[in-house]
Amino acid sequence: MSNKIRVIVAGAGGRMGKEVVKLVLEDDALELAAAVDRSSHEQDAGRLAGLPDAGIIVSEDLESALASSAADVLVDFTTPQFAYINTALAIKYGVRPVIGTTGFTPEQISELDKQCQDQGIGGLIAPNFSIGAILLMKFAAQAAKYFPHLEIIEYHGDQKLDAPSGTAIKTAEIISEVRKELRQGNPEEEEIIEGSRGGYYNGFRIHSVRLPGVFAQEEVIFGGFGQSLKIRHDSYERAGYMPGVKLGIEKVMEYTGMIYGFDHFIE
Ligand code: NAD
Prior knowledge:
By secondary structure, this protein is an alpha/beta fold. The protein has helices at residues 15-26, 45-48, 62-68, 80-92, 106-119, 131-144, 166-178, 242-251; strands spanning 5-10, 30-36, 73-76, 96-99, 122-125, 150-156, 199-201, 204-210, 216-224, 227-235, 257-260. The strands form 2 sheets. A 6-stranded parallel β-sheet has the order 2-1-3-4-5-11, with helices on both faces. A 5-stranded mixed β-sheet has the order 7-8-6-9-10, covered by helices on one side. Helix 4 runs parallel beside helix 5 (106-119). Nicotinamide-adenine-dinucleotide is lined by residues 10-11, 13-17, 36-40, 62, 77-80, 82, 100-102, 126-130, 241.
């Protein structure tokens, strides 16, 4: 009997899902139990991810995969519309969910926590699996205690719909937990061109740069008397999220209940 962790990947044909399939197929401690996708089914999961055939055909039906593949973990990178249903279904079959899909409400998370508790299994919902981005937030919060004057600049591709990024908002929230609200800058400051000073959050500013060719970057700049400090994280490609996904798959085997946020595993 193998002691590999058996993983179902939902969204296996998507940009993140293909990376997860690659991770699972190339990692000796993991085994691909099934692959599910709405639009890329009937293809071999390995080939779809750019690897040799894996002998696992992508199916359309998550419930059959959960019922028949003796899986330990479901990794879901689908769409906000389906992720809640997929997570609840996995829990029903005793398969631990590791969810990268964004868009869960606090009520849904607490309902899913209850379901995990009732089943006696662990679950993880992590809107950001990048270890570097989580460390940036933690370091920035630490620095803000000593440097309360700061600005956040985030950079993404020009087709991104929302601004600022979810990661920038989360960074601002974490900083605000340790920094007393302080309105920075000159109280008489005037914007000659509207928006020049960026978005206002608890007294500091967030700037969103959108350019083709950029993947995801974030910088927090702190200013003090006669010095400045910059903390910066650069993501270059989706593979950068995979060490976090791997850690999530391992950790979810060890506890009971739903954990929200990958930062819980980064001390
Ligand atoms: P994508 O559109 O490339 O892929 C989504 C895939 O899911 C598609 O192949 C689609 O056919 C499939 N799908 C949709 N509904 C399905 C269902 N009900 N069952 C099975 N498959 C289904 O999207 P993406 O860029 O891979 O992103 C997916 C999600 O991951 C988004 O919510 C995104 O915000 C999130 N994301 C999270 C992180 C993180 O670190 N947590 C990082 C990047 C993206």
